[in-house]
Amino acid sequence: MGLQSSAGSQVQFRFEKCCNLRRKNGSAPNAAVYAQYTTKAGQTVKSPKTAFCKSANPEWFENSRKFVDVNNDTEIAFVVLDSAIPRLSRASKPLARSSSYSLGELLQMRDEALTKGVENGHASPSFAIPLDLASGEVTAGAEEGPSLILSVIHIMSEKEKAEHLAKVTDDWRSKQRDNLDGERAALAKELQLLGDSIPSTANAKILVDLAAGLFASISPLLDNNDILEDKDLVLHLITSYRVMLEQFLSGKAKTPELRVQYYGKGCLEMSQSLRVLERCLRKPELLKDSLIVTDIKRRTIRFETFPQEPGSPLGNINQVFSERETLRNALITESDLFAELSTSFSAEPTRLNLAHSPNPSPTVQMLTSWALLSSRAELKRLFWLHGAANCGKTQLAHSLIDVFGRMGVATAYFTFNNHSPSSSDEDADGGDEPPSLEDMTKAIAFQLAAYVKGLASSVSSGVLQSSGKNADPLDFPALFKRLVISPLQVHAQSRKKLPLNETESRPAHSIMQAPDPVVIILDDLDQCAPGQLEELLLVLKESLGDMPKEVRVLMFSRELGAVRGVVRRCAGASMAGFGEGSAGVGVAGLAGLDLGIDEDGVEGGMGSAPGTPGRVNSIKWGGDLKGDLKGKRRSDGSQSSRTRFV
Question: Signal peptide position in this chain (predicted)?
């Protein structure tokens, strides 16, 4: 979509990477890139350059500062610099330069890339433009010439927002109601734009990513011809999601911050609805069940008239963790048996004070879809997420526990890091021994008994059998089976089928009463002793077949060859690098592909000694992650880019 006005519009570029750059002597340059344009008054405006990256194919994934008061005719060029001394700007020289493009041409290239990506099943706004090498500086030895890969973020003015909203509304009303493909594509785009508009530091961001990931995961199920007879029911539900988002944009929220919370609340309820829809799409005969039809219609009406009530829509930021603490304390008070299981190790992940939010959208979408959708985790119920030290894995665990708690999904957490949050990496590699596997087993069993309704009795039976006067000491595999696996099996077998709602006299279809997932998160596996890690991995691998199908095990650690080997050889396991890939790649991987790195190993130092940066630099954060929602001017003169929906 081009710019609709000649003034007041703003645009921002996301520089991703360059390809095939070489100095004249054949060595890799130390490259940075910036954009520039000339105003009507003849003044040249430049964006700050990116960080320097020494590579023939440098990667940045950085956002430029916003250009204001631009229009379709504004001519923009891109310049690549090369510097022998990265931090000294005076030492940099032009290495390559693009031709000048009008902003209208750049937006058209972006839209064409999106259209082509949708056709291929992996929509992306990124596109490539050729670069001209600086004369006498570079010898072109590559088969293809140098190019710059970037994307364009168009930030609408208030007038353009209103015009765009009116156009979308008119288009939607002119569509026939049975255009399911068009409606789902529109919703996917709305969720993408919404995700790009909300700062990563906002608590609602992960809930938007949750909804976007779940919808992307179930979208292929809409191609099933068996649902065509009931397409109106599904179409109206999907349409109601978009109606809700549009209501928030023009609703009662008096501040952008409050509006973002409404988006988070709406996306949370949308995610709960999508889980129900996924079960129906997997078994289309469910769409004939009168109770399920009634439930879907009720949800549709709620989204179409979503209440915007006074107060904080998302509640207290620590609400989930406070509820978890209350449940743990109640269990300890209930019986001395559970006091024995409550270890001295923290039951919750430490929320680190990182400079930026460490939860990249593709990773969040991939893990939440894996955990919450039955069609994903039934194939891969053990998942390993690896990343460099201090890249935000524990912070991600904290965020996942919060969002799972809001979805009603029980999550047990244990860390092998027996150190304070302020400990350095060097300190973390020596000193105190990590918790034992027996400590881990007891802590997980205790949390499951506290968080999973009806599981406490099975866990207490296992504790009594293990701690009696005549009981023989159990090794880790036997203890894990008795306190974790067996109680979960008993609970799954004895779970009663409940009515869809309390007013109904008969139960709905059994698939609608499938048990909620149970997620076990094991953090900091890199802190385990080698023998300890080997035993843990062996027991987890052998236990997959015995675990109920609703149980998911999520492991976090730095890159570890031992873990990679086990996961690669295990049919029920998968893996990914923190922040790698895209949502589409992640979803495909969970359906059977091997996620993560190729067979030759890990690039960029992920296998390096603990404490080295490794691939932490491959996790690229966009500019202005800390910017507030009002687009206030920052100290460097730039403005927040997150104004698409808020």
Answer: none
Write down the pTM of the prediction. 0.62
**Tokens 């949370």 correspond to what residue?**
268
Strand partners, 355: none
Please state the three-class secondary structure of 301-349 as a single string.
HHHHCCCCCCCCCCCCCCHHHHHHHHHHHHHHHHCHHHHHHCCCCCCCC
Contacts of 555 (CB under 8 A, 6+ apart): 382, 383, 384, 385, 521, 522, 523, 525, 563
pLDDT of residue 215: 93
C-alpha to C-alpha distance for 434 and 613, rounded to whole angstroms: 23
Alpha-helix residue ranges (DSSP H) falling in 506-557: 530-543
| CB 292 within 8 Å of CB 280 | yes
Q: Measure Cα distances from 146 to 53, 55, 143, 426, 636 in Å.
A: 16, 13, 10, 41, 31
Please report which helix (H) or strand (E) contains residue 262, including its range: helix 256-282
Q: Residue 556's closest CA among 416, 353, 348, 366?
A: 416
At 560-596, the pLDDT tens digits run: 999 999 999 998 899 998 865 433 334 334 433 333 3
Burial of 398-411, coded b for 16+ CB within 10 Å and e otherwise, reads bbbbbbbbbbebbb
CA 484 to chain centre: 28
pLDDT tier at 180, thresholds 50, 70, 90? confident
Cβ(148)–Cβ(98) below 8 Å: yes
For 492, how many CA atoms within 13 A lie in the half-sphere containing its CB? 16
Burial class (CB in 10 A: 0-12, 13-18, 19+), 633: exposed
Residues 6+ apart with CB under 8 A from 174: none
